[in-house]
Specification:
One of its GO terms (biological process) is protein insertion into mitochondrial inner membrane. With about 100 residues, the protein is mainly α. It is about 70% helix and about 0% strand.
Length: about 100
């Protein structure tokens, strides 16, 4: 499983000088790659949520209280949507550049 469209393929050659490995060893390598990809995806999602929360909270909530008023709620919703769109554009551009190399 790759992360955001990159991370290598499971069937790709590691190079001409790479030693042959057994099917069992390849399965272990694939499991490790999958685990790493999942951990990266979790870290990526956490960073997204943290960045979104920090940015939108700073922008929209001037005087924290027990709940958001209607203006703050709309601001947070709009900010979150805009932040997600921007994050997705940057992510797609990053993946495209990685895949070109």
């Amino acid at each position: 499983m790759s992360f955001l469209g990159f991370g290598g393929s499971k069937n790709g050659s590691a190079g001409a000088a790479a030693p042959a490995i057994s099917a069992e060893q390849q399965q272990i390598v694939d499991q490790i790659k999958d685990t790493i990809s999942q951990e990266i995806a979790t870290t990526y999602a956490s960073a997204l949520v943290n960045s979104l929360s920090e940015n939108c909270f700073e922008k929209c909530v001037k005087a924290p209280s027990g709940s958001l008023d209607a203006t703050e709620d709309k601001c947070v919703s709009d900010c979150s949507a805009k932040f997600m769109r921007a994050w997705n554009v940057v992510s797609r551009a990053y993946v495209a550049r990685i895949n070109q190399q």
